[in-house]
Amino acid sequence: MESHMIQNVEAKNSAPKRLVGKVAVITGGARGIGAATAKLFAENGAHVIIADVLDEEGTKVAELIDGLYIHCDVSKESDIESAINLSMSWKGHLDIMFNNAGISGSEGMSITTLDMEKLTQILSVNLFGTIHGIKHAAKAMIKGKRGGSIICTSSAAATIGGYAAHGYTMSKAAMNGLMRSAACELGVHLIRVNCISPHGVPSEMLLNAFRTFDLDMTSEELNEYIGKNASLLKGRGSTLEDVAQAALFLASDESGFITAHNLPVDGGITNANCTMSFIYQDYK
Fold first, then answer.
1. For residues 152 and 175, is the Cβ–Cβ distance under 8 A?
2. Tell me, what DSSP letter sits at residue 76?
3. Catalytic site residue 168?
4. What beta strand segments (E) does the chain contain?
5. Which domain of life is it from (predicted)?
6. Were both Cys, which of 55, 91, 117, 172 would link to 158 (CB 3.0–4.6 Å)?
7. How much is the pTM?
């Protein structure tokens, strides 16, 4: 067992780095999916800027990966612009923009009692924050004439109704449309624009959303629940690293001919009904 673990570590350390010399800005990079992705990007040779409103947590992640941290409220266009400008002053170019920041919101579950003020807050972060990120990243990438990869964190809720509240669902569905539209324009500059749609990832945001329904789960318990009830891969729940690996692929040159694509990281549930797999298992 010990020799096997040593071999795995050696293989990881000897694996070719896939983002050497590339500069990345990650919004919402202080924790969860963003932090996991920042660490993976750095391990693969990228220079990473963490852009978040969680100053203490974001600074710690930046120090850990030898990157930079900047306070950034994505709903404020000037904050996003400052984050992009930081990448330009630091390394002179921008190669990867990961629009990952998002909130689940609490605008109410029923369409009949929707709190429009809270709905506006959700859209200002999830949708307009993404617009700000694509806009200013594209400007920097066009100027740099190096191409680039813009990635946005969407959700399985954008594909199948009923997984989340109306505001969150709407914001993520609109993001997918924005991604495709932006990809059409920016392709001529060799800038790729894609989305990742996770499902059931045990992030702090999802755990907090469950707590609003008095479901106080640990990340391990949520992972187990997803593996049993919401995945074609029976017993296999999703992890932060699953999404980070998808982001690494879309950020790297290995996905150089992929754009205008929504990549589900969801155990197959948005493309197939997992009920039959459970029936087969029970029948056996």
1. yes
2. S
3. yes
4. 23-27, 47-52, 68-71, 96-99, 148-153, 191-198, 261-265
5. Eukaryota
6. 172
7. 0.88
- Which residue, chain included where needed, has tokens 């999802």? 206
Q: What is the dihedral of CA 132, 34, 272, 223, to 10 degrees?
A: -150
The 10 Å Cβ neighbour count of residue 79 is: 18
What residues does 152 pair with on adjacent strands? Answer: 99, 195
Closest CA to 134 of 69, 84, 82, 92: 84
- Return the bridge partners of 98, or none: 26, 151
User: Strand locations in 111-246, DSSP E?
Assistant: 148-153, 191-198
How far apart, in Å, do the first and last CA atoms of the chain sit? 33
pLDDT higher than 80, residue 190: yes
Q: 3-state DSSP call for residue 114?
A: coil
Q: CA-CA distances (angstroms) from residue 280 to 156, 226, 229, 276, 284? A: 25, 18, 14, 6, 6
Nearest-5° angle of CA 123, CA 147, CA 263?
50
Over residues 151-170, the pLDDT tens digits come to 999 999 899 888 888 999 99
* Token pair for 103: 């909130």
Which domains does the chain show, CATH number per domain?
Answer: 2-200+239-271 (3.40.50.720)
Strand-pair partners of 261: 194
Q: Which two tokens stand for residue 60?
A: 């710690």
**CA–CA gap between residue 36 and residue 28 (Å, rounded):** 11
